[in-house]
C-alpha cells in the first residue's frame, strides 16, 4: 500500500537557523511529490513540487527539496528560517492515475526568537 | 487570477442533519478535489470531479456525495452527519491529466457536528 511518512511531529528551530523536514514515501514507481504549508486556520499553500528531472527543486519562500530515489525521500530544507515560517508542513504524494494526493500527518514547526 | 474560494467559512450542524459545502475553482482550472482534514491530521482524499463526473473516490461512505457544475464550481454534500464528520473540509482545483496532481487549495470550511 502507498504511504507517506513524516517522522517528526514537531520541530522547534531558532530564527535564522537552518531547517530540514523529513518525508519518506512508499510507492512502486517514482511518484509526483509535493510540499505544502498550512498556517493556523488556513488552507494549504503549495511550496514546491517534483515531477521529474533535476532532483533538487526550488520553491517559494526560500524553500528547496531534494528527491532521493534510493532512500525514497523528499526532504524539505530552508537555510535560514524566519518567524513567519512557523506553520504546519505537509508532504504529499500523487500516486494514482488520476490525481489523488496522499498526505503525511504533518510536521509542526515552531520558530523561537 | 482568482484563487479557490469556499463557503461558508464555518458551520455548526447537529448529528443526523445534512450539509452542503461550496467551492469555486481557480480560474482556468477544470478539476476539483475534496479533502477532509480532522484535527491534528493530514488531509484525506474524499473524491475528485472532472467534466461534472466523479473521477475517483477515497475511502468515504456514500453519504458523502458531490457535484460539479458547468462553470467547474463544486459542492460537497454530507448526509446523516456524524460527530466524526467534524473537520476542516478543503477544496482544491487543478487542470486535468498529469497536471491534476498540482492542486491549489481553498481556505476550507470548518464543520462542527454536535
Provide structural commentary:
The complex is a heterodimer of chains A (113) and B (114). The radius of gyration of chain A is 13 Å and the shape is globular. With 113 residues, chain A is an all-beta fold. In chain A, the strands form three sheets. In chain A, strands 2, 5, 6, 10, 11 and 12 form a six-stranded mixed sheet that branches. In chain A, strands 3-9-8-7 form a four-stranded antiparallel sheet, with no helix packed on it. Helices cover 0% and strands 52% of the residues of chain A. In chain A, strand 8 and strand 9 (73-78) form a beta hairpin. Chain A has strands at residues 3-5, 10-14, 19-21, 24-26, 32-38, 44-50, 56-58, 64-68, 73-78, 87-94, 101-103, 107-112. Chain B is mostly beta strands and 114 residues long. Chain B is 0% helix and 50% strand. In chain B, a hairpin with a 2-residue loop joins strand 5 and strand 6. Chain B is globular. Chain A binds chain B through residues 4, 32, 34, 36, 41-46, 49, 51, 90, 92, 94, 96, 98-106, and chain B through 4, 6, 31, 33, 35, 41-45, 48, 55-56, 58, 90, 92, 94, 98, 100-108, 110.
Task: Compose a concise summary of this entry.
The complex is a heterodimer of chains A (113) and B (114). Chain A is an all-beta fold and 113 residues long.
